[in-house]
Design a protein that fits this description.
Layout lengths: L2 H9 L8 H12 L1 E9 L5 H13 L19 E9 L2 E9 L14 H19 L14 E6 L8 H11 L4 E5 L7 H17 L14 H13 L2 E2 L6 E4 L2 E8 L2 E4 L8 H11 L1 H35 L1
The structure holds guanosine-5'-triphosphate (GTP) and magnesium ion.
Magnesium ion (MG) binds next to α3.
Family: Belongs to the TRAFAC class TrmE-Era-EngA-EngB-Septin-like GTPase superfamily. Septin GTPase family.
Protein name: Septin-type G domain-containing protein
Organism: Tulasnella calospora MUT 4182
Length: 316
């Protein structure tokens, strides 16, 4: 290096470590992001339909991709649907896990077990990969970051089975309740129902996402508060496109009119989509790792430690 250039570097106090943010960004962009959502709720509330609507709203094209000729069938097992969405060079793998609806058996005891087990299995798979001697530099993350909980739009109150399932879920995953088939409620009914649900959840001590922490700055706290005022999101889903102003949009056509799923005056689908893919994506991922996975991990490791201590005590 020329002596003059060395002198110049020495003379300036700038060392250039601020480029670290660009280096991190580059690495993250290369890897892409993975976001995993699960949908849970009673049978026939439109879970499969909403998954299709969410994907279609990102992937809609002139060829009418994701337009189905067949009606959706009742879901019989847990299955994941996955698509990569790219925006401005950022790749997001959005993975939505569909589950069979519950609540149509005579005895619904334990109907939530398979879903809770599925969520825990993902934590367990991650932990196993983390604990191997030659662990991967980047572990494929299948942990569920958000659970959309579908509520029947009865207009009255939550069924006790929903309370139980929501409580169980909230112990292992970020739960976000949504009012399904919101087209069946008038705007006034919707507001009353929302307030009833919020009150019931508070009464039953169900701790829902978002969580305020000491690390949150005032801006984040304010954002959480606005989300809390909307939750439960009142959404409408549709498998079909309808033509509005010459453009195909997801909607439901009735004798008395058309509901445009993406119209904010009709339902809160756009709010839900923004919440998931715009405002809270990173926080949902972080909360999963720091609260839910951490709790699972420490419980497992303590159990492991206890188990390994036992034979030693016996032989002593
Ligand atoms: N009115 C109305 N009907 C809907 C809405 N979303 C879905 N549906 C209809 O409800 C029926 C059931 O929808 P699915 O998506 O199969 O419901 P699901 O929750 O996946 O049902 P399971 O797989 O049995 O748990 C279908 O006929 C849908 O067209 C909605 O927002 N409003
Ligand atoms: Mg289904």
């Amino acid at each position: 290096m020329a002596a003059a250039a060395v002198d110049e570097i020495r003379a300036s106090s700038y060392v250039g470590f601020d480029s670290i943010t660009r280096q991190i960004e580059y690495k993250l962009l290369k890897r892409g992001f993975q976001f995993n959502v699960i949908v849970v709720g009673q049978t026939g509330l439109g879970k499969s339909t909403l998954i299709n609507t969410i994907f279609a709203s990102h992937l809609i094209d002139s060829k009418g991709r994701l337009e189905h000729d067949e009606p959706v069938r009742q879901t019989t097992d847990i299955q994941a649907v996955s698509h990569v969405i790219a925006e401005n060079g950022v790749r997001l793998r959005l993975n939505i896990v569909d589950t069979p609806g519950y609540g149509d058996q005579i005895n619904n005891e334990g109907c939530w077990d398979t879903i809770i087990k599925y969520i825990k299995d993902q934590h367990s798979a991650y932990l196993r990969k983390e604990l191997t001697a030659m662990r991967d530099k980047h572990i494929q993350d299948t942990r569920i970051h958000c659970c959309l909980f579908f509520i029947n739009p009865t207009g009255h109150s939550l069924r006790s089975i929903d309370m139980i399932v929501m409580k169980k879920l909230s112990e292992v995953v970020n739960v976000v309740p949504i009012i399904a088939k919101a087209d069946s409620l008038t705007l006034e009914e919707r507001e009353v129902f929302k307030n009833n649900i919020r009150a019931e959840m508070q009464y039953n001590n169900i701790r829902l996402y978002p969580f305020d922490t000491d690390e949150n700055d005032p801006e984040e706290l304010a954002l959480n508060e606005t989300i809390r005022n909307i939750i439960p999101f009142a959404v409408v889903g549709s498998e079909r496109n309808v033509i509005i102003d010459g453009k195909p949009v997801r909607g439901r056509k009735n004798k008395w009119g058309v509901i445009n799923v993406e119209d904010e005056t009709h339902c809160e689908f756009v709010h839900l989509r923004n919440f998931l893919t715009r405002t809270h994506l990173q926080d949902l991922i972080e909360t999963t790792a720091q609260i839910h996975y951490e709790a699972f991990r420490s419980k497992q490791l303590l159990a492991l430690k206890d188990a390994s201590a036992r034979p030693a005590q016996g032989s002593a």
